[in-house]
Amino acid sequence: MRFAGVVPVSLLALGALTIFACSSSSTSDEFPPVTPVTEDPPPPNGFLSGEGGVTPGEEGGSSGPVCGNGAVDQGETCDDGNAKGGDGCSTKCAIEPGYKCAKPGAACSAAACGDGIVAGDEDCDDGNTTNSDGCSSLCVFESGFACPTPGKPCVATVCGDGKKEGTEQCDDANVQAFDGCSPTCEVEPVCAGGKCAAVCGDGLKFPGEDCDDGNKRDGDGCSSTCKLEAGFTCKVVVSEPPGSLDLPIVYRDFLASGYAGTIPAGYASHPDFEQYNPGLCAGLLESTLDAQNKPVLKNGKACDASKTWMTSTDSFKQWYRDGLKNASNLLVNKRIDDTLTLTKRGDGSYVFDSNEAPYSSGKFFPLETKGFGVETGMRDGSSVERNFHFTSEFKYWFTFKAGSDPTLEFRGDDDVWVFINNKLAVDLGGVHGATDGSVTLNATTATALGLVDGGMYEITVFQAERHTSASNYKLTLRGFERARTACESVCGDAVKTRTEACDDGTAMNTGGYGKCAADCTLGPRCSDGVVQADQGEQCDDGNLVDGDGCSATCKTTNGGPK
User: Fold this and answer.
1) C-alpha dist (Å) from residue 404 to 116, 345, 453
2) Which ranges of 190-328 does DSSP label H, i.e. alpha helix?
């Protein structure tokens, strides 16, 4: 193999794909906690954190009920501290269907998953707590489903129908890769000049983002704008790598120059396929991709002026683009979006090898039943007719981590070019037998390619199969780590999160009657449904509502609870 003046390289910095998933776990670099806004100290009586409990015997109150004041007054069944509806407590301070409002002055929450009402933090509620039916037992969307009607069965989503539903991050009405929305309706990184920019909610933590947990939901530690939220601590942790990677790849199918078989109407054969067989040649392409992130032909006779590797700049431009026509106004290729599955090996690398099933040595023919199908007269070494003429385009996004020295290795025929950060890193151009190439992102190579520690970059592998009678493709990614951010609430920071029942700060989380406990759970109190006689309670009907026989101070009225 030769490297046309390019620093020999071995894999792309399949550094650390950084993904944010806010939950409890692990070890690693910890983000500084977000400092909460200082508020006035809570009152000495009743629950802190806006619990609104009242010490038995105190009648306190106002001249009349005021919805939104954070206290459950007479005639109210809730008061979450505001007078807005749709959040569990209505504009008239009445509990809304599907909610429970156990804590005056605090947000209401879903009464129960499976009741057929979407409330609180629920994504969905299909009327049951069964998993694998689109809405999980925790009322969270399951991949591949949408749940448009609460209380009704969820339905399968259709990526490419132009409707963003369920867990789909996007839907641009097609299932094509590398257009911003993937074939599985996930947001793709936006990369200009090879360096990628952050897209909040795509699950990849980019420089400039505090976090990214793959959603745009507030209240889980990572906000809808990918900012850390008060009350949580978040750490970057390395997840256990998956057993395989299913990655998108785009094939473009061509017909051989002078093709003798039937050519579909509106199409033509291509002069660069089957006509030339000049061998390996580095230096055919420009060293950087163009503004559309596509390769550009520099010299189709780069290695020998008496030989031809490509017919022209225009003919080469058709290799990795769609819809271009020749001088006769005929199309020359068909696009096929597919998936390349890389399996994890014992050394932690991910490999696709066409020498392994479902293919075999020299027989990488992924378009036998796609595109133009089998080409008449184009035979392999066993005299079997095959589809020999196609190109492939493969992309991978990674975070470069200095010192990790990730490596990309490739073996194949014919042409193979690898670009990292839009710069040529592996150059195996020409029509040739299976040839090896690699790139390792060590300090020297990283400098040559313009990589900065912590930056997110794009790798693109361009390949072409142009001549009978064998076809090979092996891709290895080594040094890959998939990182994410785990967020968990911080008990004792005086910021109540949705996973805490209360939080008045370490000094005040002392437990006992009307107090918040050290583990941020509520202690015994009026409205907990248990009569605390030693605290002066005469009754406890589980609420802080007057007029129902048990007052908001847990005193018997009007003959007792009803």
Assistant:
1) 49, 18, 10
2) 313-317
- CA–chain centroid gap for 314, Å, is 37
DSSP codes joined into one string, 110-171: ES-TTSS---TT-S---SS--SSSSB-TTS-BPTTEE--STTS--EE--TTSS---TT-S--
Residue 506 CB: number of other CB atoms within 10 A?
12
* pLDDT at site 122: 86
| Cα dist from 171 to 140, 148, 183, whole Å | 20, 16, 9
Return the DSSP state at 251: E
Check if the beta carbon of residue 430 is closer than 8 Å to that of residue 279.
Answer: yes
C-beta atoms surrounding 310 within 10 Å: 27
**Could you check whether the bond before residue 358 is cis, i.e. omega within 30 degrees of 0?**
yes
- Beta-sheet pairing, 416-420 with 456-465: antiparallel
Q: How many CB atoms lie within 10 A of CB 536?
A: 15
Q: Percentages helix, strand, coil for the chain, rounded to the nearest 5?
A: 5, 25, 75
Contacts of 121 (CB under 8 A, 6+ apart): 109, 110, 217, 219, 498
- Beta strand 481-489 with 16-20 is parallel
Q: Which of 103, 69, 64 is nearest to 83 (CA)?
A: 69
- Check: CB of residue 557 under 8 Å from CB of residue 546: yes
Neighbours of 263 (CB within 10 A): 13
- 22 pLDDT higher than 80: no
Q: Which two tokens stand for residue 371?
A: 């595109």
Token pair recorded at residue 420: 């990292």
Q: How far is CA 91 from the centre of its chain?
A: 37
Distance between CA atoms of 412 and 422, rounded to whole angstroms? Answer: 21
Question: Residues 280, 281, 285, 289: is their CA dihedral positive or negative?
Answer: positive
- pLDDT tens digits along 192-248: 877 788 788 777 777 778 888 777 778 788 888 989 998 998 877 665 568 899 999
- Spatial separation of the C-alpha atoms in residues 411 and 468, rounded to whole Å: 17
Question: Residue 386 has which token pair?
Answer: 């095959």
Which residues have a Cβ under 8 Å from the Cβ of 36 and sit 6 or more positions away? 230, 231, 493, 494, 495
SS3 344: strand
DSSP 3-state assignment of 447?
A: helix
- DSSP assignment letter at 533: G
DSSP secondary structure, 360-401, as one string:
-TTB--TTTTSTT-SPTT-B-TTS-B----EEEEEEEEEE--
Alpha carbon distance 562, 560 (integer Å): 6
pTM of the model: 0.74
- List pLDDT tens digits, range 356-365: 999 999 999 9
Query: Which CB contacts under 8 angstroms, 24+ apart, belong to 100-103?
Result: 101/77, 102/527, 103/47, 103/49, 103/50, 103/51, 103/52, 103/501, 103/502, 103/522
Determine contact, residues 474/354, Cβ cutoff 8 Å: yes
What would the pLDDT profile of 530-558 be if each residue is shown by its tens digit? 999 999 999 998 766 777 889 878 999 87
pLDDT at 17: 39
